[in-house]
UniProtKB/TrEMBL annotation:
Protein name per UniProt: Sigma-70 family RNA polymerase sigma factor
RNA polymerase sigma-70 region domain ranges (all copies): 14-78
Protein's UniProt keywords contain Glycoprotein: no
Residues that span the membrane, as ranges: none
Organism: Pseudoroseomonas ludipueritiae
């Protein structure tokens, strides 16, 4: 799916596939679901190409399409998350002697995955993808201050988990308000 022709302009999305894949992986926590999410987002981007404005940042626009595709598929992923959690409970965590570092990295990764979705998304976009607060805010459709707050909370939670403090109970990823999902909650 190298480039998309949007009529008046040809867009090379190839450079954005790896970052989109990483962000999708952070959102879905499952490699196959992440790949499906990227494909869905690219299809949606193509279908909604008329909404892309000249001069707009293609990467930011694609990330926003990807994020909105994730939010739209949230109910379906809840069942998938339950399946992944069930498989995770079956696997006995263990590490061979001398692999303390690998075990510690695994624990940090699991703590990252246990962050609430809004915090995990903000952390991923800013800390891992290197986007600015403004770019992340545009993708998440929230004010930049909200991104900064979510990022601060995510970092603090990861520090507490790394220090061995009690793991917080996993809050619901999205809150239903007025009969529709509210991704800004």
């Amino acid at each position: 799916m190298g480039s998309m022709s949007f009529g008046w302009r040809s867009f090379d999305v190839t450079a954005h596939l790896a970052p989109m894949g990483r962000y999708a992986r952070a959102l879905t926590r499952h490699a196959e679901d992440a790949e499906d999410l990227v494909h869905t987002a690219l299809l949606r981007a193509y279908e909604r190409r008329a909404t892309f404005r000249r001069g707009e940042n293609l990467r930011t626009w694609l990330f926003a399409v990807l994020h909105n595709s994730f939010i739209d598929g949230w109910r379906h992923r809840r069942a998938e998350d339950a399946r992944i959690a069930a498989v995770g409970r079956l696997a006995a965590p263990h590490a061979e002697p001398g692999q303390d570092h690998a075990l510690h990295l695994r624990e940090i990764f699991e703590a990252y995955l246990s962050l609430p979705e809004p915090q995990r998304a903000a952390f991923h976009l800013v800390a891992l993808e290197g986007l600015s607060y403004a770019e992340a805010a545009e993708i998440l459709d929230v004010p930049a201050g909200t991104v900064m707050s979510r990022l601060s909370r995510a970092r603090e939670m990861l520090r507490r988990m790394d220090a061995g403090e009690a793991q917080p109970a996993r809050p619901p990823q999205l809150r239903v308000v007025g009969g529709s999902h509210d991704p800004k909650a």
